[in-house]
User: What shape does this take?
Amino acid sequence: MPDVTREYPGTELDAVDRALINTLQGGLAVRARPYAALARDLAISEDEVLRRLRNLLDRGVLTRVGPMFDAGRMGGAAELAAMRVPPAELDAVAGLINSFPEVAHNYARDHEFNLWFVLAAERPERIAEVVVAIEAGSGYPVMRLPKRREFHVGLYLPV
Amino acid sequence: MKIHSSATLPRSTDPAPDKHSNRAGNGPFPPSSPGSPLDALDRRIVVAVQEGLPLCAHPYHELARRLSVTPEEVMDRMQRMLELGIIRRIAAVPNHYALGYRANGMSVWDVPDERVEAAGRRVADLTFVSHCYERPRRFPDWPYNLFAMVHGHTRAEVEDQVGRIAALLGADARAHAVLYSTRILKKSGLRIDAVTPRRKED
Assistant: This one.
């Protein structure tokens, strides 16, 4: 599993990469040639946009370029969950958690509750089924923290 | 931040996103499952694009080819899902750490229930807060009901941001903690099955 404290060699970003990353975090309009519009804004060619994006994805600077879905608006559900597991068992429990496609992301955190993951499913009842399976498989309880109110969602990390 | 998404700008040459029912031959697609706002074609589009938009000059044409529909149909559906908020935005998902944001903290706060809505709105307005939610407490283990994600190049930077949240909340913050992420164990985003989850498949 990747240790996020590690360095990212070869991830030096030039000014064009930075502009591309900053612009693309904001959003792409739906149009036949979305990258051409982006290229015009950045004064580079469409080919260069595609080449740079491929490179940024290959290097792991970007994890994805595409739609970000709201499972709730889709008729499904998403829920934050946390677990408190002995450090020696963290990798094994994380492996179990990650084996479910309903787990959209999972982070280790420096707290007594050391595993934090988001479950997202098209069928809301599926969340409870996965929680039960994780509890049964790991032998540890899952703390479920569904959102009650959403005040803001919009990650933007300027570079 | 609170940047304006170019996805909301008016489109110049693209077809209007209003009609999705007059595809040649088929007529309206049935819902993918009872009560779902997605019909069967929407759902196929979601499955095709959930790992990312094709990285080519005409990504919607490529999706259309894979799905055997017209590019206009794919773009109309994508536009409609954006307008309904089913798609929040079409954007780059960065690896925080590779961008130099090495300190990513989930700050959690115990705020009186009757004050949490106002507090949440004020915290959400801080430009450095990327996500802000109210969640239930879980006594005795978990007394916190307000969550605000903050990101910095160093922990000192995050601590400064957390200090600004604390100052804003004042006496409403009865207790707080910051949980820094130490490893990304998974980061795939939503994944739905190619086959609908309902068993009434026939």
Remarks:
- Chain A has two domains: 15-58, 77-145.
- The domain at 77-145 of chain A is CATH 3.30.70.3460 (Alpha-Beta Plaits).
